[in-house]
Design goal:
Blueprint: H1 3-8, H2 18-35, H3 38-52, E1 59-66, E2 72-77, H4 86-94, E3 109-116, H5 118-126, H6 133-142, H7 146-149, H8 174-186, H9 192-203, H10 216-224
Antiparallel strand pairs: 1-2, 1-3
């Protein structure tokens, strides 16, 4: 497991727990199996998009249940609003024959994953201004005066997924960081770790020099009419 890459998604650096390393290895093996069925997955995404009339998403969260013998026991959508939908039916069918390598069966358990429409996801990531556009817009509007921000036209924002990975205001859990690195390992053409790290760095606001630390002392100064916090 490349801890240098993993550290770029975390605010602290420490040796990876053995359980985290094992999870990373499991996810790598599972995603390698998923990539072996990428043709069927891409076809499922394409068919759903054609039935709907436009592209809604290029990634879908799923939960993979692995049984005691290392075989796939069940596949379900990772979000309630996707259950019973066209995505549910098409992707479940595409992954129905998913099997582990004969030499190393997968560990039993429940794995939360993202199934990717590879070609479409790669194309979407190339348009950096769209991924994730709504976070950039929010931070742009926050920097404007209220009267100016009010004149910026509202625009419906499409489902940009998984958008929270790119937002520096949302912490990335350990399990998600491992998942991101596993995807980056199996799909190196996405450069997912590099994109997420650079986007979070670009949107992270620096502390302005006029900010006082500790700021709470300033409130006491005004309240007691004193210039020194001790008094």
């Amino acid at each position: 497991m490349n801890e240098k890459i993993f550290a770029r998604l975390r605010d602290w650096v420490e040796p990876a727990h053995p359980g985290v390393v094992q999870l990373f290895d499991d996810l790598i093996s599972i995603y390698q199996g998923i990539r072996g069925k990428q043709g069927a997955i891409d076809k499922a995404f394409d068919e759903v998009s054609r039935q709907i009339g436009f592209v809604i998403t290029t990634t879908v969260p799923v939960v993979l249940e692995i049984g005691d013998r290392g075989m796939v026991k069940g596949i379900s959508m990772g979000a309630e609003h996707l259950k019973g939908t066209l995505f549910d039916k098409a992707l479940t069918a595409a992954l129905r024959d998913l099997k582990p390598p004969e030499t190393s069966p997968w560990r039993a358990g429940s794995y939360s994953l993202y199934i990717l429409w590879a070609d479409a996801f790669k194309l979407k990531l190339r348009t950096d201004w769209m991924e994730p556009a709504h976070f950039v817009k929010d931070r742009f509007l926050e920097g404007l005066r209220p009267d100016v921000a009010a004149r910026v036209p509202a625009r419906p924002i499409p489902w940009v997924e998984p958008a929270h990975w790119f937002d520096p205001g949302i912490a990335i859990a350990v399990e998600e960081a491992v998942l991101i690195e596993a995807i980056d390992e199996v799909y190196p053409e996405f450069k997912l770790v590099e994109r997420i790290a650079s986007m979070r760095a670009a949107l992270r606001r620096p502390v302005r020099p006029e900010v006082k630390e500790p700021a709470h002392f300033r409130r006491f100064e005004h309240r007691f009419g004193s210039e020194t916090p001790e008094e």
